[in-house]
Design a protein that fits this description.
globular, mainly alpha, single chain, 22 helices, 508 residues
Length: 508
């Protein structure tokens, strides 16, 4: 059973953290670019990008550790959690030493790898030293994050992240007021990120999740988490290949590579924003899923997946359908009316996002079950097929080839879920899950009748055309949203009692 308000509070704080992160990016880029200059700002980007690449060394532990800690907590194996969690800290310290070695290598021998001047490289070298200095603390933070997530403290971790983001925003204004140098700014920024470990450790000790912070060496017990995490790592690599290769493929195979990639990036903004908002759902569901797998009550699992498939679908519909019914207005407000021809691909992409995201509750049980062989193989096959489709169509429908390739990848995986994994891995009755998805989706399409067939004239409320298009987007969104909410309540897909239960923690 979820703790009081667990799902609502976790999602609220997760969303707030992501919104603050977006604000930080929006505020920081133009200010720092103007203050430090394009070249020096580029040095910051190089340093953080090089360090970011090394996060692959995580090897899927963020998912694996949460799954096993939640499972062992449900089984009452707290001693095992203590051993593995402390060994997890040791693992991350070892990873940090590898990271430090990589950063020092770049600092000492990396000048030949970057097309920058010697003076710029000296600044970059100092940035690498700063990252190396805080590396062990930053990596060790992951061990405590995973423990807190497994014990359903996601809201707390997101509250800490939100505070840290506010501190990073404040730091930008300190740069302007105190005239910090590039190196001073980067040092304080890295220190703020590393300081996250302090409230995490305090919370773990306060809630008695750990008896000791001392690193341990229980590698035999740790191996179960590690080997499962490796399968998640392989899964992530294929997912990245399928999603991140699309602009590269367009640049290589489309007739006008640069223009096609630019069009793709324009269309991508809205789906990426939606994915960002939905990104924490699996992490929120996983602790509950792991506990239910331990109890092995198929009725409870079926009810949870049915209920949350409906709720997830409704939520994603509310995010996607406004962009479906007003796609041209959104693009016109964002980049100009001359890019309205991309609207059909935005509509298609948003639709397939709904199809993809509805499987999130069931996917958390696939991870919790721990049998990932079929999932990894099917993901690999779907990834390869989607890349081939993208290549074959890139000259015919450049941006469309990327969207269709993504659709092939996603539909292939959803097909495997329904045809095999749901039944044979989790023991689900598949039709109730499909029905839980189709009902709110069908009502979403039915509600499209209003904004699509009621002509909303272009109203000039401002001399700035983008504001007028945003106003149109809001009107069309309301014309869809109000009937959709009305249908949900009229057909009792959503009940007032469900909302109260969800807020008070009674939602199963």
């Amino acid at each position: 059973m979820a703790k009081k308000g667990y799902f609502v509070s976790s999602f609220f704080w997760s969303t707030l953290s992501k919104v603050l992160n977006a604000i930080f990016g929006f505020v920081s880029v133009p200010i720092l670019l103007g203050y430090f200059g394009k070249a020096d700002y580029g040095i910051l980007s190089i340093a953080t990008a090089c360090n970011g690449c090394m996060h692959l060394l995580d090897l899927g532990m963020n998912t694996g550790a949460v799954k096993f800690f939640a499972q062992w907590s449900a089984e009452g194996r707290r001693d095992l959690i203590q051993k593995v969690s402390n060994t997890n800290t040791t693992f991350y310290l070892i990873i940090s030493f590898v990271n430090i070695a990589g950063l020092l290598f770049l600092a000492w021998f990396g000048e030949r790898f970057f097309s920058i001047s010697y003076d710029q490289f000296l600044k970059l070298r100092t940035c690498f030293y700063i990252l190396a200095l805080f590396s062990s603390v930053s990596w060790a933070t992951s061990a405590y994050t995973q423990l807190l997530t497994a014990f359903k403290k996601i809201a707390f971790t997101m509250q800490v992240n939100s505070v840290m983001l506010l501190m990073r925003i404040a730091l930008i204004f300190c740069v302007l007021f105190f005239k910090f140098s590039l190196i001073e700014y980067f040092f304080y920024l890295t220190a703020i990120v590393a300081a996250t470990i302090i409230p995490y450790i305090v919370k773990c000790k306060k809630d008695r999740l750990l008896d000791s912070l001392k690193p341990a060496f229980y590698w035999k017990e740790f191996s179960a988490v590690f080997y499962f995490s490796l399968s998640i790592f392989a899964l992530s690599l294929f997912q990245v290949a399928a999603t991140q290769s699309r602009p590269v493929i367009l640049s290589m195979f489309a007739e006008r590579g640069a223009e096609s990639v630019a069009d793709f990036r324009i269309v991508e903004v809205v789906p990426q924003f939606i994915i960002m908002l939905c990104g924490s759902l699996t992490a929120i569901f996983l602790p509950n899923s792991s506990e239910m797998i331990v109890r092995n009550n198929l009725g409870e699992i079926q009810n949870f997946i049915n209920t949350w498939t409906t709720r997830t679908t409704i939520f994603v519909c509310m995010l996607c359908f406004p962009f479906i019914v007003a796609s041209e207005d959104v693009l016109s407000a964002y980049v100009g009316s001359e890019f309205g021809y991309l609207s059909k691909w935005l509509v298609l992409w948003c639709f397939f996002l709904i199809v993809q995201m509805h499987s999130t509750p069931a996917f958390s049980f696939i991870l919790a079950r721990g049998r990932t062989k079929v999932l990894v193989v099917s993901t690999a096959i779907a990834s390869v097929i989607s890349i081939i489709v993208n290549i074959c169509l890139s000259r015919i429908i450049p941006v469309g080839s990327a969207v269709v390739g993504y659709a092939v990848y996603m539909l292939g995986l959803i097909g495997v879920y329904y045809l095999y994994i749901y039944k044979y891995y989790i023991g689900l009755k598949r039709f109730p899950v499909f029905k839980s998805f189709m009902l709110p989706l069908s009502l979403g399409f039915l509600s499209c009748v209003f904004p699509m067939f009621i002509t909303v004239p272009y109203i000039e409320i401002s001399s700035i055309s983008r504001i007028n298009y945003i106003f149109l987007f809001c009107i069309k969104s309301l014309l869809w949203f109000l009937p959709y909410v009305g249908l949900l309540f009229a057909l009792r897909v959503v009940k007032i009692s469900d909302l109260k239960g969800l807020i008070n923690g009674r939602g199963k």
